[in-house]
Amino acid sequence: MNNIKLEIEFSESNELITSLLAFKTKSLHKGIQLGNSWVRNVKSKLSETTLALIANTELKESILNLLLLACPKKDSVHDFLEWIGDVSVGEIFEQVATWTPEDTNDLRNINEWRSNMVQLLSLWYEEYYQHLDSSIINTLTKNAQKNRELLKDYKPVDLIEEITNGLRLEFKVKRIILIPQYHISPYNLTNDYNGLTIIYYSTQIEQMNPDFPSLSILNIARALMDENRLRILRYLTNGEKSFTEIVQFIGLAKSTVHYHMVTLRSAGLVRVHVYSQGRERYSLRNGALNKFNSDLTSYLGLEK
Questions:
Q1: How do residues 175-198 score in pLDDT, each as one tens digit?
Q2: What are the residue ranges spanned by the domains of the chain?
């Protein structure tokens, strides 16, 4: 794992795609920090044309990620949309085939999809994205810059865990790209290709008032305010456990345990060991509890 090529990047076009994915994917709405209120607010500002395109156009975010990776001018949303609109179908196939099987279903009707996607992303930019608070993009840009500086001080697998708040990759991969994102926080979004993994990692936008606790403190405090989640953490001190083992131990419905695990993962209290074919196991992140104690002590002004 130490021989992998690890990159950290960010462009406005990355968050353009992530924001649209967050809005379109209903299964995310309950869990993301922006929540259903954000979805309702954005929906009220979109045109009927845009809403229809969102409902009827498959995002194929895996293809979008690969095209964005290949785009020579990805920093500008305008340049990216112009490029994806002009690039030949043959080049799309070439870029995608490098990392995916040639018979992938995502490549069917690619020209029609490309036309619809350029229109959809253009409308989404005009009606929502260009009105986004500029501090969000600035924070994401600075976060990527800060984390790039850590590349020389960490082993790749350790830096990935640190940046993603607990994701531990236990399989071989040639290249990993980490990209900060805001709209799907507190989740990480992982796309695995043939030798390439792209991870959009959760980045919290902190409010500047020192009288209020940080989101990190709040997330951990909320995660600990449940006896079943505390029991799960205690169980994980015994070493790696599968989801099935956790369900059997805690004696609750799978959906309930899934909710608890999402909460613990979002707070960074659980290390997620990701093995080949997406298999996951879980263990306790002791460092997160130590950092919580330090951060809480500092916030309360109890430091000597």
A1: 999 999 999 998 899 888 888 899
A2: 5-202, 215-299
Distances (CA, A) of 283 to 8, 189, 269, 278, 286: 26, 20, 9, 16, 9
Report how far residue 204's alpha carbon sits from residue 286's, in angstroms, rounded to the nearest whole number: 21
CA torsion 153-156-160-166 (nearest 10°) is -90
DSSP string, 205-255: ---S-TTSPPHHHHHHHHHHS-HHHHHHHHHHTTS-B-HHHHHHHHTS-HH
12, 41, 227 from 257: Cα distances, Å? 35, 31, 12
**Cβ contact 283:270 at 8 Å:** yes
Segment 22-31 shows an average pLDDT of 92
170, with CB counted inside 10 A (0-12, 13-18, 19+), is middle
User: CA nearest 291: which of 199, 216, 210, 211?
Assistant: 216
Residue 177, strand partner residues: 7, 198
Query: Do residues 200 and 181 make contact, with C-beta atoms less than 8 angstroms apart?
Result: yes
pTM for the whole structure = 0.89
pLDDT at 167: 92
Q: Which CATH architecture has domain 215-299?
A: Orthogonal Bundle (1.10)
Q: What is the pLDDT of residue 208?
A: 66
Counting residues of the chain whose pLDDT is more than 90, the rounded percentage is 61
